[in-house]
Amino acid sequence: MRSWGNEEVDDRVARIGATCSCKHSSRSFFAPLKASRGSMFDAGVFNKVKYSRLAADNDGYIELQFKKSPPRVPYKAIALAVFLFSVGSLLVIFGALLLSGTIEVEHPDRTIPVIIIGLLVFLPGFYHLRIAYYAAKGYRGYSYDDIPDFGD
Asked: Residue 107's pLDDT is what?
C-alpha cells in the first residue's frame, strides 16, 4: 500500500462520500485534495527537502518580544479622578459643617446623605489618584496600566 497514492485517496474519498449526507458529490469536493496530494508525493517534492538542526544557543525567542513599551498616561482618567476627589472632599467638608451646626440648617438630619454621597465620590477619586501618584514616582508594583482608561 503506497502512502497517499491515488488509489488510496480514491478509496478514502469513496468511503467518506458514502458516509457523508451532503448534497455535493464527494468526488467534486475532494478533487483538489486528491490532485494536490498525489502530485506532490508522486513528484517527490518532499523527498528533496533538506533539514538541518538549529543552533544550540538559539531558543526561538528574540529580545524585542519581551520589551515593554512605556505605558501611556491616561490623562482623562486622572482628570476624572481629580474631579471626583475634589467634589467628594467638598461634599464631606460641607456635610460635616452642616452636621456640626456651623452652617445653620432647618433640618440637620438631612445632612447625613451629603456626607455619605461625599464619601462615595471621594473614595474612587482618592484611590485612582494614589495609583497615579505612585506610578509617576516609579514605585514598584504600581503602573498606569492599573488605572482604567475608559477605552481611550
From this structure: 83
SS3 (DSSP) at 64: helix
58 part of a folded domain = no
Q: What is the pLDDT of residues 89-121, one digit of tens each?
A: 999 999 999 988 888 888 878 889 999 999 999
| DSSP secondary structure code for residue 143 in this structure | -
User: How many domains is the chain built from?
Assistant: 2
**DSSP string across 17-43:** HHH---SS-HHHHHHHHHHHHHHHHHH
Domain that holds residue 96: 75-146
Q: Roughly what angle, to the nearest 10 degrees, separates helices 26-43 and 6-19?
A: 160
Q: Within this chain, do residues 44 and 89 fall inside the same structural domain, yes or no?
A: no
**Average pLDDT taken over every residue of the chain:** 77
Least confident of 29-43, 90-104, 122-136: 29-43
Rg, the chain, Cα only = 36
Q: How many CB atoms lie within 10 A of CB 35?
A: 12
In angstroms, the CA 67 to CA 135 distance is 19
